Amino acid sequence: MSTKKGVRGLGLGASKKLASSPRPPAPKRKAVVLLSGGIDSSTTAAIAKSGGHEIYALSFDYNQRHKVELEAAKLVASSLKAKKHLIINFDLREIGGSALTSNMKVPKLRNSEFGIRNFQSAIPVTYVPARNTIFLSFALAWAEVLQAENIFIGANAVDYSGYPDCRPEYLEAFEKMANLATKVSVEGKMRFSIKTPLLHLSKAEIIKKGAELGLDYSLTWSCYDPQPIKVKSEKLKVKSYGKKEAKQFTDSPIHRFVPCGKCDSCIFRAKGFQEAGIKAI
Questions:
Q1: Counting Cβ atoms within 10 Å, is residue 228 exposed (0-12), middle (13-18) or buried (19+)?
Q2: Is domain 27-276 in CATH 1.20.1250.20, yes or no?
Q3: What is the C-alpha separation between 81 and 79, in angstroms, rounded?
Q4: How far apart are the C-alpha atoms of 85 and 78, rounded to whole Å?
Q5: CA distances (Å), 180 to each of 187, 196, 222, in order?
Q6: Nearest Cα to Cα of residue 92 among 127, 124, 62, 54
Q7: For the chain, which terminal residue's Cβ has fewer other Cβ atoms within 10 angstroms, N or C?
Q8: Which run of H or E residues covers position 135?
């Protein structure tokens, strides 16, 4: 009596079993995400993750006045389960030219709604010369090594301080340059794309989007002029995270400082939460 054979001599039962076996999930696309630890970059990272990307977070210690933001970046990267979080060190204070990299005073209460004058009247002294070009160049180098086509940056052309390297025309020009200046693009193996999901959103819209994605904004930092504080004991609750993440949040050096509440970034943050109808964090 003959026995019917299935695929490669296996019985029919085995053949059906193989056919019904679930396929392995498709590999996630890699993305390099510039992550400062602020609202915009953190929301951008959450958007990249929600889009199915494997996150490679990139932060910079450039001896900035608000270096505490790096602690926030670590917390956000951990909460979003970034594949890797890389912090690159260099000293832009050697160049200076900004209130964030020198002893210049950080402007306070510049917004007419909250204090003195309108934000868009001039490029403020908190502009760091060529900062986004420097950051994106590092991101491009890492993306080429990782073979990651997408580079995410939280640039915003609506509620921003007038920085020239946040404009759409600049970002388009950088993308064009990226595809002229890298080995993989010249060889036709890959085309880089600069992703700017927040470019045309208001701060309120950005916050609403992050809230929809479950981003915990209490992990983020916005202030340009952190003020030191001495706290003997502090009980903090981190919603939707386990004990390990909660302990990491509580023990972070970020809790040695409080925001000034008066710089551009603090005001934009407060204004964004107010307009979003969400309690400020």
A1: exposed
A2: no
A3: 5
A4: 8
A5: 10, 20, 34
A6: 62
A7: N
A8: helix 131-146
Structure tokens at 153: 């940056």
- Which two structure tokens, joined as six digits, stand for 39? 């609202």
84-89, strands of its sheet edge to edge: 84-89, 53-61, 29-34, 150-152, 193-195
Give the separation between CA 46 and CA 44, rounded to whole angstroms: 5
Q: Treating both helix axes as pointing N-terminal to C-terminal, what angle do 39-50 and 203-212 enclose, rounded to 10 degrees?
A: 40
Listed by start position, the domains of the chain span 27-276
Shortest CA distance to 133 belongs to which of 186, 106, 95?
95
Query: pLDDT tens string for the chain (281 positions)?
Result: 444 444 344 344 444 444 555 666 666 799 999 999 999 999 999 999 999 999 999 999 999 999 999 999 999 999 999 999 999 999 999 999 999 999 999 999 865 444 434 445 578 899 999 999 999 999 999 999 999 999 999 999 886 667 899 999 999 999 999 999 999 999 999 999 999 999 999 999 999 999 999 999 999 999 999 998 765 444 444 443 344 444 444 555 666 788 999 998 999 999 999 999 998 87
Cα distances (angstroms) measured from residue 164 to each of 62, 105, 124, 187, 255: 20, 21, 11, 32, 32
Cα–Cα distance measured from residue 54 to residue 197, given in angstroms and rounded to the nearest whole number: 16
The residues, ordered by sequence, that sit 6+ positions from 79 with a Cβ below 8 Å of its Cβ are 215, 216, 219, 241, 245
Structure token digits, residue 237 = 């609750």
- This prediction's pTM: 0.82
